[in-house]
Amino acid sequence: MIRLCTPIRKEDIDRLKVGDTVEISGCILCGRDAVLPRVVKMAEEGREKELGAALEGQVIFHTAVSPAGVGPTSSNKLEIEESIAPLSRAGVRLHLGKGALKKETVDALNAYGAVYAVIPPVTALLGAKTVEKKLLAFPELGMEALWLLKVDGYPAIIAAAHGRSIYE
């Protein structure tokens, strides 16, 4: 098990391989199809500081945050998958979700020094490993707003790294 703490350094990403199991601790962003296009737009406009958390070295978990807890959503939903390349370019190092990504997305992860990891749909386990949660931006989106979680030991499996995918 490889332990990763946020913010994640490029050296940490460089040593990861497809199939590695990781455990993530620190503060991570949570967002899915409703909010990620907004975050991309802000990053492209140089307004990411308005989000309340830096994107450099960040983890984005493809999930909503609800009273029932958190669990991964499909990362290959159009709005989510289209956010991966620009957010990686903006400094996000690790994208967490579930499902296979297109080859172009896997190549973009490689080009921008980021990786993608799948996380099992285990809401109860993740709830126990979520220490704090804070609404950061777009409260009108409810549970699909941008959230910041403080986590301790989130388990995941590296699914795309260095131009390769576990789904190949």
Say what the CATH topology is.
Answer: fumarase
Q: What is the CA-based Rg, rounded?
A: 14 Å
Percent range for β-strand residues? 25-35%
> Span between N and C termini?
23 Å
- CATH architecture descriptor: Alpha-Beta Barrel
Total domain count: 1
Gross morphology is globular
Q: Number of DSSP strands?
A: 8
Sketch the major β-sheet. 5 strands, mixed, barrel
Helix content: 10-25%
Which CATH class is shown?
A: Alpha Beta
The total of helices stands at 5
- Record the strand order, biggest sheet: 2-3-4-5-7
Return residue spans where pLDDT drops below 50 for at least 5 consecutive residues: none
General description of the model:
- The protein has 168 residues and is α/β, with parallel strands linked by helices.
- It has a single domain (2-165), classed as fumarase (Alpha-Beta Barrel).
- The chain is built from 5 helices and 8 strands, in the order βαβαβαβαβαβββ.
- A 5-stranded mixed beta barrel has the order 2-3-4-5-7.
- Helix 2 packs parallel to helix 3 and helix 3 (78-89) packs parallel to helix 4 (103-111).
- The longest helix has 12 residues, at 78-89.
- The chain starts with a strand and ends with a strand.
- 40% of the residues are buried.
Defining traits:
globular, fumarase, alpha/beta, 168 residues, five-stranded mixed barrel, 8 strands
Topology overview:
Elements: E1 2-5, H1 10-14, E2 21-31, H2 36-44, E3 59-62, H3 78-89, E4 94-97, H4 103-111, E5 115-118, H5 123-128, E6 130-137, E7 146-161, E8 164-165
Parallel strand pairs: 1-2, 2-3, 3-4, 4-5
Antiparallel strand pairs: 2-7, 5-7, 6-7, 7-8
